[in-house]
Amino acid sequence: MKKFTIAAALLALTLVVSACGANSSSGSNSQTASGNKEASQKVTKIIVGTGTQFPNVCFIDENGKLTGFDVELVKELDNRLPEYEFEFQTLDFSNLLLSLETKKIDFVAHQMEKNPEREEKFLFNKEPYSIFLTKVAVDKNDTAIHSIDDLKGKKVFTSPTSNQAYFLEQYNKQNDNALNIVYSSGAANDLVNLIQTKRVDASLSTDFALAFYPGADGKPALKTVGEPLIQSDVLFVLRKDSQELADKLDEAIKSVKEDGTLAKLSVQWLGEDFTKTLDEAKAK
């Protein structure tokens, strides 16, 4: 098993300076954390950017350990890619893509989705590791909002640079700025508080994420309404010069899909198998 550490910012910056980029290679004189690689094998260290504020996806548990679906998946992929050694660096969500662009990290694992703006700057691997439908999310007792059309003139909460933010911005362009978009990078419970205190009226969420927005009773404080607005493939985000790494990640993802490991991780952390396509889900 490989040993994982949460890289401190200073270490990441040192790697950038010394390796002219976040990743660096080690040859015959290097010993990987797995301890069982041939001495002549070249191993490339990869810095993986993730967060700590997404419950069950990437977060710090009660023992101070970084864990969650994306984190444990990356660990499993690392075990299947002997030519790489992955090391985590935690960042605020709003800083992930900037850190990727400036070569402080090598890829992002944070339930990221494609949009045209991101595709202009970055490379995505091809094999999705989750598939989600995004809808309008409101207080569970709300009876006035039934779809996005009911949000005209209302405040809608989202995280900057997220796929949901991009969708809302495009919606505003096409609908005469009908929505008042409120940006934040706070934790999940901040959203619940904002909605319950009427400082915002709604957000966008997937059904799987509702359990991560608990109220005082421990049950989901929000609900989704209306038709799905976004059908999203969740992918890793890399720099455009990282095609080889992207291809290797795709190979490893296909492997964990084929042997059922990915589905097990999804059920364990997300409560359901979110690795199936819409057609596969409907055929169940």
| Helix content range | 25-40%
Following the backbone from N to C, one meets helices and strands in this order, namely HEEEEEHEHEHEEEHEHEEHHH
Strand content: 25-35%
Q: Characterize the largest beta sheet: strand count, sense, and whether it forms a barrel.
A: 10 strands, mixed
- Count of domains: 2
Q: How many strands? A: 13
Principal-axes geometry comes out as: globular
Radius of gyration: 20 Å
What is the terminal-to-terminal distance?
35 Å
Secondary structure tally, helices: 9
- The name CATH uses for the topology of the largest domain is D-Maltodextrin-Binding Protein, domain 2
What's the architecture of the largest domain, going by CATH?
Answer: 3-Layer(aba) Sandwich
As residue ranges, the low-confidence spans are 1-21, 25-37
Structural class: alpha/beta
The CATH H-level superfamily of the largest domain is Periplasmic binding protein-like II
What is the arithmetic mean of pLDDT? 86
- Oligomeric category: single chain
CATH class type of the largest domain: Alpha Beta
